[in-house]
Amino acid sequence: MSGAPLRLVFLGTPEFAVASLRALAGSRHELVGAISQPDRPRGRGRKSAATPVKQTAEELGIPVLQPEKVGAPEVVEWLAALQPDVAVVVAFGQFIPKRVRELPRLEMINGHASLLPRWRGAAPIQWAIAGGDASTGISVMRVVKEMDAGDVCLMRETPIGADETAGELSERLSLLAAEALLEGIEQIATGAAEFAPQDPALVTEAPKIDREFARVDWGWSAERVLRRIRAASPRPGVDVKLALSGKTFRILKASPVKTGDGPTVVPGTVIPGAVRAHGQCLRVGALDEWVDVLRLQVQGRRPVEAAEFLRGTAVSEEERVEPPPGAEASSSNHPVEN
């Protein structure tokens, strides 16, 4: 290792950014300040709470600022007084103007949770799962005016688990981001960093997700339904309403039906949206296969396994989900999904 230690500032907001903040604070470099989004109402009580990055920065004794706009004159003045060599951005959540991007002596870099140029945007982890990608990763890139379009210094790839939810993958990627950013900073410190432009022909977009993203059409293939459930977990969450019983619940975990674990599937015989109780399993029909709902949560109650739910809920042979399958397709469908 060579090159003088650098003065770093950190810009980040949610839990995803905390591992990177801690890694920088524990490195040989000097973390001289942090910027996070303002405190916002959170949780059911909607009480104002500090962001995870603010909480961690205060725990580590790092000065932290929470401006509504990072480009405000007093914020730029505060940053300039810190004299940073490198600024590191992880899931900050604000547009960063030129006067701030160009303030660090050497670079402003970002740790983005995808293999760029695939999945530029606010929800790369969710779209990678929904799109059926076999792998994803972290890209360390230069921050520029256009979102996630900067030259890339390095990438770290990881496979996406067959049952992995967006929440679980986010935890793994947050740790990978910390490793990749440390490596990128060392490359900058030693003068070894080489930034390469992204191929514009390979760009795909990962827009912010909302309730529409979690609207499953049971006329999709079982594989696509399962991908969307995993991508929407834990938030916004796929909700199901049973047409006859009126029961409404959120699917927390689901899987394909194991071979030989009936009902026997004859192509063309599964009714999309049909609901069946099979032993201790709760099953919902998709286009080509049954989907096993393994774990669920009725609103206002604790999460339970499907078997516990079935002990208190009779499922008629005529039961089905609402709305009727095929009645409304999600407006958030992405062209790479199938």
Descriptors for this entry?
alpha+beta; 16 strands; elongated
Low-pLDDT runs: 324-333
As a percent range, the share of strand residues is: 15-25%
Helix-strand category = alpha+beta
Number of helices: 8
Quick gist of this model?
The chain is of the alpha+beta class and 338 residues long. 24% of the residues lie in helices and 25% in strands. It is elongated.
What can you tell me about this protein's structure?
- 24% of the residues lie in helices and 25% in strands.
- The protein has 338 residues and is of the alpha+beta class.
- A 7-stranded mixed beta sheet has the order 5-2-1-6-7-8-9, sandwiched between helices. Strands 10, 11, 12, 13, 14, 15 and 16 form a 7-stranded antiparallel beta sheet that branches. A two-stranded antiparallel sheet has the order 3-4.
- Strand 13 and strand 14 form a beta hairpin.
- Helix 1 (18-25) runs parallel beside helix 2 (52-60) and helix 5 runs antiparallel to helix 7.
